[in-house]
Amino acid sequence: MKHARAAREFLRNGPRTDWHDQALWYVRQKRDLQKDGIPDWEDLREQASAIKEHTLSNLDQYLEEFETNALRNGIRVHWALNAQEHNHMVLEILQQAGVNRLVKSKSMLTEECQMNPFLEKKGIEVIESDLGERIIQFAEQDPSHIVLPAIHMKKEEVGKLFEKKLGTKPGNHDPQYLTGAARKHLREHFLAAEVAMTGVNFALAESGGFVVCTNEGNADMGIHHASIHIASMGIEKVIPGKEHLAVFLRLLARSATGQPVTTYTSHFQRPDRDKEIHLIIVDNGRSEHLGKDKFWRALKCIRCGACLNTCPVYRRSGGHSYGYTIPGPIGSILTPRVDLKAFSDLPYASSLCGSCSDVCPVKIEIHEQLYHWRQEVNEQGELSRKKKLGIRFMGRLLARPRLYQKSGKFARKALRITPRFLVYNRLNPWGLSRDLPEPPRQSFQEWYRENRNKS
Amino acid sequence: MKAGLFIPCYIDQFYPQVGIDTLELLEKLGVEIESPLNQTCCGQPLANSGMEKETLKICSHFIQLFGSYDVIVSPSGSCVLHIKEHVPESLHDQVYFHVRDHIYELTEFMTDILKIDGLDGHFPHRVGLHQSCHGLRGLRNGKSSELAGKGFGKARAILSSLKDIHLVELDRRDECCGFGGTFSVFEEAVSVRMGKDRIHDHMKNGAEIITATDMSCLMHLEGLIKRNHQPIRVMHIAEILNAAIS
Amino acid sequence: MSRAQILNSISKNKPAPVKLPAPRKIFDKADEDLLQAFIDKAIDAGSETENFDSFEKVEAWVKQQRKNGKYVMDLSMPAGDPGMVDMVVIRGQLGVAENGAVWIDDEDMPTRKSPFVTNHLVLTLEKVKILPDMHEAYSKVDLDRTSFGVFIAGPSKTADIEQSLVIGAHGPIKNTILLY
Description:
Chain A has 455 residues and is of the alpha/beta class. Chain A has helices at residues 2-11, 14-36, 41-56, 59-72, 83-97, 108-112, 115-121, 131-138, 155-166, 175-191, 218-225, 242-256, 286-289, 306-310, 312-315, 328-338, 355-359, 366-379, 385-398, 401-417, 420-423, 444-451; strands at residues 76-80, 101-104, 125-128, 195-198, 202-204, 209-214, 228-234, 238-239, 264-268, 276-282.
């Protein structure tokens, strides 16, 4: 139970857990304020969901349309079957340009492909330009949230980090000051950028262009100074056209950060004069996932992170406890396809409360998929033996009324007479922090037989 | 209309009073109701663990017991939701469909079938309503805070109608209590922390009693309250309503 | 070849076709004060707004800035390093009331980097070009004619350090909208 163990560690620091939980709940509240201001919010969600499902059910056609139009616009289009191919393509573009430095903005896809460590091994310096990503790059950590990568770090920790890496004033952890220092530091990299890399928020089939959304302006700063722009996208990022883009843009920032829109919504249609745009379309297991009846709808995801912000488990265990690139509810339904065995505990890192599904702007039934993944885990034989035996035993009992009644009566009697120290010990995980209910003398059925069922 | 009373296994064994109060309440409301003997369980603990396939016997027993009633009522949103959504497909026949389409959680039954929008009763206490997740986001017996639109809540409406009751406003209106069935054991640390936070919210806002439509949530919260000797108690909504109109 | 493999895999696996939903019904916003809504949202996003009666008055404003010694870069004076000027002025094609964003494209930029690398971005916008929402905005934006376009809503910002909002991340620190 890797998540459970990591969560327990995280929870050891009560005040810090409070702080983390409150910070993310605040983002959820900001999101709520936005949705209350949009009269057609639920309508929009329904539209967004339907547009995505339509597109995914015709994905090959839309990708071909997109490619045709992108090529016509002068964008070079590459197709990568998997992470390795993607990483090699990026390397090749850099090598052909004779460049060994890459300025990049946030992309969960490149995290998924483990691109940074690959490039670094090949002698390429990778500079994360999103402030949150740069912070965790300095700290040599993984992001703990898909939109707010450094949400787990306190400003004092960032201050200390910047002291070491950027020479900021010791003891100064004012976010304004620290951001200013990062601005100065990264500006040098932007101005000198030769190859810049971004993700893709939306690719438009109809016009053959794509959209990148940021608040910091870091994507554009890198791209417009560089001569080569590499953009990576998962196959599921394509949408029909600008009419549909409007629906998603109205939902994205509101769901992600509680803003009506990100500061910059940049549309790349044609490369600038004497410059190149390379678009890499990546599969990495997505097309296969498309064929999974109970799970393909997870591909509707627009990476807003709202499900993380609302998840009571995520808020109290932190992104690092999930052990994968994308944590939280959406992560728990995407990662089992990557490696069911390694991530068999993630579908259980949830109370199935359903809050995630209700905030999802594209109406992915996340909590339902978590339930179905649990069935898969069991089907593939990955359910822990301990869990299985205990619950199966209970199941056998519950299928036989007489046995159930007798066992219940026995258990209650036993609980009433067993000394406390025997009931509450390490073998009783419920009892670590909770009391068991008072065992009554009569079950409801016993009472009913006596008081109502005179036959 | 002949109603069948479905009493979940843990209520049967550990909280029979909730079953008794549910029965008495419905009898007082003029419902012709009986509880078939030899009930066991809806199968949720197995299914939620990943063993839905192994609930065939349990579910088929359930369908057989309850198939002949016009309606089925239960003081448990999660069990009702489970019967509606996670009974294995191989058991889907006419009898099952009848059960699925006529099974209700208590406040849902009172509101939608008995068409009761209030009770003539008296409950002079400060009460915190805990919104059990399955009843809220599953059965949609209330509007969850995540969704846009006009607020409504069946349990809340009935409680509000009682004289002298004070329903406290919580900081987080419908955050999960952390029970989640086997989650409470497999992710014990998170589960406990979630429960403690809920209790804190209720106490901070002045509740003397925490109520809900699901005893499972309350069992978890009560376990924490008792262990930590906190000055607050839990009552299932059936207990409150039955006491209020006595 | 990867392309063929990917497309074949998609074709093989894709779910049963789902219909594209009908375009959204346009909610009647005839009575909404678009200008005020736009200004409110622009300010929320950290922009400053200035009201003028005519384009001539806007031009006069720009002239005055230059008279005061400010280096103002725009299409009429595109030379120089936009990162070193006092402000870059770009014509906005339309504005969106629901979020305070302004659409500009590279036909109106001295260079593509100019709206981002300057410390102070100034956008001019005709009041009648303010539309209620993104649906209407995109009905007017012609992407086929655009090489690079961007919706800009405010100065650059970040809340990546402990959720504290800081204005001025990597793009401009100041964003002014001149409405006429």
